[in-house]
Amino acid sequence: MRPPRERHRGKDRLTTGILAWEEVHRYTMTMPPLARLGDLEIAVLEHVWAAGPCDVKAVHRTLGSRRGITLNTVQSTMERLFRKGLLAREKVSHAYVYSPRHTREELGARMVEEVVSRLLKGEAVSTLEAFVDLAARTDAANLDRLERLIAERRKAPR
pTM of the prediction? Predict the structure, then answer.
């Protein structure tokens, strides 16, 4: 089933309402589609992973001056990440303290899964070939790591 579309400036585009999210959510696990993460959202996640639980002001001190963005922009971004299920938050005094709901590795694995399922239609052979090629180009030792991971997986009970 295709997500609903609307006309905008003469072009079709996906709608962003609740209905579209419900349709997309049926095909994903517990995380939203990562293709919808913007550069600032990724930068905020990177900061929270590195710094640990923090409030909006702490993130703004690090990212705001470097990017030339306001406190409100950071606050809106963190709220969006909370609504997307990528950040958890707890009210402490008058401010929310945000923490990651998923590790970097979990999000990375989810991103790979999404690319394979959406773009490659789950084709395992081409995906594995591309992954092995990428691993070999990045670092020759990665092929050894892959062999060890495969051996460990084969030994693990199913």
Answer: 0.64
Residues 6+ apart with CB under 8 A from 67: 40, 43
Alpha carbon distance 44, 40 (integer Å): 6
Cβ neighbours, 10 Å, residue 137: 9
So what CATH class is 36-100?
mainly alpha
- Detail the DSSP E strand segments found in the chain: 5-8, 11-14, 87-92, 95-100
Asked if 68 and 55 touch (Cβ cutoff 8 Å), the reply is no
For the stretch 85-121, pLDDT in tens is 999 999 999 999 999 999 999 998 888 788 777 776 7
In 3D, which of 52, 96, 104, 91 has the Cα closest to residue 78?
Answer: 96
Q: What one-character-per-residue DSSP string does 55-96 give?
A: -HHHHHHHHHHHHT--HHHHHHHHHHHHHTTSEEEEEETTEE
Helix/strand/coil for 122: coil
Residues in CB range of 111: below 8 A, 6 or more apart: 34
DSSP code, position 117: H
